[in-house]
Design a protein that fits this description.
Layout (H helix, E strand, L loop, with lengths): L2 H24 L4 H23 L9 H23 L3 H14 L22
Helix pairs in contact: 1-2, 1-4
């Protein structure tokens, strides 16, 4: 597992932990937030699979290939920036809080204890 996969895993752990803390604080489960986190996990999983299939060739790249690759990366970055720009404030805050984890500057906090997801008595 490379550093980017570890950072992604840490970021997702952070989001899961933060969401569990929010659920506990509110006393209920935020279904929409959980659905968005699941979408993000699926997207990141798909991205990891694509990365594994598209490993760079073993031979050195020439300047044109490097420029083309940088152009594709720039397009992807612009797409991400557009998605962040239209995200709601809570999503932007969550992304901002996770930035240090993405950059490997800190580790994700341990997951919060799980909270009940449905009404009615709960057995322990």
């Amino acid at each position: 597992m490379d550093n980017s996969q570890l950072a992604t895993k840490d970021m997702l752990k952070f989001f899961q932990s933060t969401l569990a803390e929010l659920d506990a604080a509110e006393g209920c489960v935020d279904e929409e937030a959980h659905a968005k986190l699941q979408q993000l996990e699926q997207a990141m999983s798909g991205h990891s699979r694509v990365q594994q299939r598209t490993n760079p060739p073993a031979e050195p790249l020439d300047d044109i290939q490097i420029a083309q690759h940088l152009d594709r990366l720039e397009e992807q970055l612009v797409d991400v920036e557009r998605k962040i720009a239209v995200a709601d404030d809570a999503t932007k805050q969550l992304l901002g809080a996770g930035t240090q984890i993405w950059m490997g500057l800190s580790e994700a906090p341990p997951p919060a204890p799980s909270t009940p997801t449905g009404p009615g008595p709960h057995k322990e």
